[in-house]
Amino acid sequence: MCSIKDVAKHANVSVTTVSRVLNDFPNISAKTRQKVLDSITALDYHPDYMARSLSKQQSLIIGVIIPDCSHPFFAELVKHIEMTAENNGYKILLCNSLNDEKKERSYINMLKEKRVAGIIMGSHLINTDFYQSIHRPIITFDRYLGDNIPYIGSDNFTGGQLATQHLIDSGCKSLLHISGSHQLHTQANKRSDGFKITCIENDINYQILEYQYAQLTFDYYYEYIKTTVSPLLSEIDGVFCSNDILAYALYVYCTNHDISVPKTLKIVGYDYCQFTRLLQHPRITTIAQPIPIIGELLSKNIIQMIEDGETHNVYSQTLGVKLVKGITT
Amino acid sequence: MCSIKDVAKHANVSVTTVSRVLNDFPNISAKTRQKVLDSITALDYHPDYMARSLSKQQSLIIGVIIPDCSHPFFAELVKHIEMTAENNGYKILLCNSLNDEKKERSYINMLKEKRVAGIIMGSHLINTDFYQSIHRPIITFDRYLGDNIPYIGSDNFTGGQLATQHLIDSGCKSLLHISGSHQLHTQANKRSDGFKITCIENDINYQILEYQYAQLTFDYYYEYIKTTVSPLLSEIDGVFCSNDILAYALYVYCTNHDISVPKTLKIVGYDYCQFTRLLQHPRITTIAQPIPIIGELLSKNIIQMIEDGETHNVYSQTLGVKLVKGITT
């Protein structure tokens, strides 16, 4: 009796492609479908045995680790990851890492045990060295973990430049950037590089504050602004915030403390997630990341890595960003 | 050689409890832990065989089906479902049903094949009859699917009463309620009952509009308001919206069309999800559901059903709501 592997070999496609044709998944070309069906007929293959052999081979489940799925940016990202996965016959196992390194590790263990076929890593807690030794499919969002681990993210450097140049063009003379922690090797740190270089090129005073990674909530940001950012506000006239919720918290702080935005202080955010698009007052000036495309590419590329069994053909991808003008500048 | 089942029987606990002790999961009492360890010693059980027998028995994975995880309400609900599941040693498989009945069905099939141990159903597409025949752990959010399928939700009827009485107490004489589709047997429809009965008791003119289930986005709601709600706005002075994003879309529509809120039109929403709590202008008057507790109970109860193998001890639960006063009334 022949196996699904024989069918795949005969049709010159992957085992998963055969499985998908048998399960009537979408996104299979008519040509591929016919090729698989021809091989099934030629070899007299009985798909009853398919499920078992496939489940031995891989789980068709992708682990997705993000800091917090209730944050509007990640909520939207997960939606597009899941939709693309589903369209390709995969399901996602969702993990909010919050501040717990153990949760990240438990997912890596699932990957090692082949209980998940691959991992999309959007969290930032474990030291990068930990990942170097794992020769299984991992893709990251906005973080460099090693040469064999591709990442997908937005063009953070250009985003930082665009935001900063816009503040300068709007008349700012002394700027502050509030970034994530630089100890984590996230691609998002390049926003700070773009900020710094633009300030230097324009001969503008600047400061950079790093907030340490904790909960990504409005209340947390507001508290941070009150304790750490507010003493600096009298010295500056423009702030580039590393995300929109932070920018909104700063706007609200200013409104509550009679600091006029944009007259006295100009604010630019980053993300343009669903929350920012919904928000009508104020419309925050921000850098828009293409969140649906990032989610789609994370899914498509991890699936390619899972199915090819190789990482060679999957490259890191950096997606363009654009400035969206609101009323905070 | 004895099995994990023998240990469970000897210690008078479930197989999963034994597995958790062996895997060092949190939330096991010291007493239970010791009882299990004693039985392991007494029976000379070697946990090497545990993983295999456990995986045969159940997957420790809960399927979670919701309409759209990027909607702020569901984003927050999923976060609390996942956190509680994780604390009890379970992982969640996330599905955005969007408008696709096939996705709901595919999860039910996973449940039948024991690829997931239980399902939390927060989506509303498939006819309830479909569920009656499945004798496996299912719990729903805000929907009655049958006597053996418990649901967790907020006290929708009281929520509807509170919202409506508040509009009347604020001086409204002619009210509109925009509800979800009544064809779906959701508990949320009781908001309409609460609305209706309060209007009747107070001898107030009222109308109810049902919007058909589609995408839960601001843009969709705005379009719906433009085409369907706006012709009625001249006849009414208060609206009870079935969710906050809808209430916000109505507020924005009014602002864009010179309808003064709350002077000419008063608006009450429902949910008090993260978006509403973040939103500073306007602070929407709304009915607050205890989303973290709902998420926690959904997880805890489905896990109890999975581990007991019985549904008898799990009852539907309706959680209290409260009015949060904003500036839209």
Automatic annotation (TrEMBL), chains A, B:
Transmembrane segments: none
Gene3D superfamilies found in the cross-reference section: 3.40.50.2300, lambda repressor-like DNA-binding domains
Keywords, alphabetical: DNA-binding, Repressor, Transcription, Transcription regulation
One Pfam match: Peripla_BP_1
One MF term in the entry's GO annotations: DNA-binding transcription factor activity
Domain HTH lacI-type: 3-56
Entry-linked PANTHER family: LACI-RELATED TRANSCRIPTIONAL REPRESSOR, RIBOSE OPERON REPRESSOR
Name assigned to this protein: Transcriptional regulator, LacI family
Organism: Cellulosilyticum lentocellum (strain ATCC 49066 / DSM 5427 / NCIMB 11756 / RHM5)
